[in-house]
Structure formats: C-alpha cells, structure tokens
Amino acid sequence: MIHELSNTITSYSVAYPSTGGFSFTQVGNQSIPSGTAAADIAVSPDNRYFISSSRNSTLFPFPNPIPSNTNTLLSDSLSVWKPTSNGTLLFQSIAPGRGSFPWHLVLITGGYGGSWHAYEWNGRGL
Which Gene3D superfamilies match (predicted)? Predict the structure, then answer.
C-alpha cells in the first residue's frame, strides 16, 4: 500500500484461516526516496517488482519534445522495488517518468524484446 501523506510504502502478509476470511499483518514500511512524493504503485508485468510513481519530484531534467521550445522540462520519477521472501521491499532504482504530477501509473508489456513501459496519467493526458 502506498501512502501519499507519509511518503511510504507498507507491505503486508496475508493469512487465510481455516475458519474462513483473511487477515493482514504489516511486515514492512519503506520510505519513498528523498525528494519525491508518493503517488501510485503497480506490479510489474512479470510479477517480479513493484513500481511506484512520485509527484513533484523534479529530479530529472529532460529536453522539451517541441523543437522550437528550448525550455527544459522537469520529470517526476518512477522507483523500482523488489519484494523479499519476508514481504519487505528493497529499493532497486529510480528513473525519470517523463511526466508531471501523475495520478495513476499503468505498466504495459510489449515492444522490442518483450520490454515493458510505464505511463503516468495526470488528468491532462499521458
């Protein structure tokens, strides 16, 4: 579970008692990388990683895609987390999301070599 206000990701183990139902036990609480603000989380298409998006991180400058506009844009970030055998998450890397203030994160498989791509939705377009 990602928490926007506390800027953390909390992980849980799930138990399924023989009497029915289920219960959750917290097993981890990781902080989002400094300089970022938690937004959304998704499971990678290969089920091996969690990807979190961050709003207003502006850690990564990138060129404006409009050739006549020389203003540098600032990109929010995507962080990669690997689940461990006990359910906690290990931070792996951070990369530019090439978006601004994302509300939602979508991971899509396909492309060259079976790679996957992340798209951030901010209400104004991808």
Answer: YVTN repeat-like/Quinoprotein amine dehydrogenase
